[in-house]
Amino acid sequence: MQFLKSLKPAAATTAVIAALAPKDLDINDPSSIRGVAKTIAGGAMSYYSGTSEKFVDLPEPHYWWQAGALMGSMLDYSHYTGDKTYDQRISRALLAQVGPDFDYMLPTHFGQEGNDDQAFWGFAVMSAAERNFPHPDENVPSWLQLGSNLWNSLTSRWNTTACGGGLLWQIFESNPNGLDYKNTVSNGGLFQISARLARATGNNTYLEWAEKVWDWTEAVGLIDSYGNVYDGASASHNCTDTNPVTFSYSAAIYLYGAAVLADHTGDKKWTQRTERILEASRSFFSPFDNATNIMYEHACEQVFSCNADMRSFKGYFSRFVYGASLFVPSIQPTIDELWHTSALAAAGACSGGADGTTCGQKWYVGGFDGLTGLGEEMCALETIQGLLVGESKPPLKGDEIKVVRTFDSGSKSKRGRYDVRKV
């Protein structure tokens, strides 16, 4: 079978996209990819009842961080497909959750907000900045400034009382277990946001912090010499008791940050680190001989123990690996090998429900497995829409980043009527 290797950059389109059943996906046809993505995006957003005027928390059992993660997925959807249907709802969600200090520290969610939760909102707000996503509220700082404020909040909690540094998983005493655990999602979040701010602004302080976080992660053994990214370690044991569990999204968070720095610095070490993590990430594919190159979350899928968080991890894995290919083209053959097969498997799994388009969890069963939820929709969405990355515009930086106040609905009456300002 011939797989789509790379799509040439194309002019932005505001054409209407025809929704397609995922089972009919043709990964060599960009219009088919867009149509399937539209169908799955609708499924994902069916879990979010917010409007262009009001943010609404996701229903249980989803935590606040997954709302930020969903907005990141939908920012990708808008960027890759050109479909602006959800833009106003995305923008409202991002702006409504900035908190009193404009850093995504929201008192109403302190009971469940950890450093990793804040980081996921940071991933989304950085994507908004890097794409000049519309920001209609003049009373709120720019996307880029919000990202910087969030970064300042994270770095203020760098903890040197044990392990020589690192962020703890949790922030508040209401989550005491996480106050003894330094995890790679929190630290990887700081690393990636530092890398993206370094590239976006050219400020060396961000680069120095990115180096610092990476070096610390390696020094305590949470990234090994093969590129495996482990879950975390206990502060009370001075990070000598590494938890050997690996999750796909933890690896991808570091991988994307390394790819950003490969572009920003030109230093080959970051290219090599990107490649090394991706090679180690082959462990997240091929659960069986008859399911070669199909993605799965090996910590939980086969033993039916994936919680609501884990059921979305493959989506962020795909998001960041596809994005990394724009900066480190050498990983494209691995994407061709692994993600194209997985995208077809994911599409086949999105064949359940009354509409025949509801997505399941386990892509390696050869169809719909009956396990449904927001995470399943997001995983399939990011894995399929990311096929369009080759025709997307890379993240903006420096003077390319502007504040855009008006939404483009695709109509001629609004095109070109942006209030564009430098950040």
Account of the protein in words:
With 423 residues, the protein is an all-alpha fold. It has one domain (25-395): Alpha/alpha barrel (Glycosyltransferase). Residues 1-13 and 410-423 have low confidence and may be disordered. It has helices spanning 30-45, 64-81, 87-96, 115-130, 143-155, 184-201, 204-219, 248-265, 268-280, 313-324, 332-349, 374-385, and strands spanning 181-183, 232-234, 402-404, 420-422. It contains twelve helices and four strands. It starts with 29 loop residues before the first helix and ends with a strand. The longest helix has 18 residues, at 64-81. A two-stranded antiparallel ribbon has the order 1-2.
Low-pLDDT segments:
1-13, 410-423
CATH fold-level assignment: Glycosyltransferase
Strand proportion: under 5%
The number of distinct β-strands equals 4
Largest sheet: 2 strands, antiparallel
Q: What is the ordering of alpha helices and beta strands? A: HHHHHEHHEHHHHHEE
Helix share, percent = 40-55%
Pfam family, one: Glyco_hydro_76
Keywords: Glycoprotein, Glycosidase, Hydrolase, Signal
InterPro entries: 6-hairpin_glycosidase_sf (IPR008928), Glyco_hydro_76 (IPR005198), Mannan-1_6-alpha_mannosidase (IPR014480)
Family: Belongs to the glycosyl hydrolase 76 family.
Question: How would you sum up this structure in a few lines?
Answer:
This protein has one domain (25-395): Glycosyltransferase (Alpha/alpha barrel). Helix content is 43%, strand content 3%.
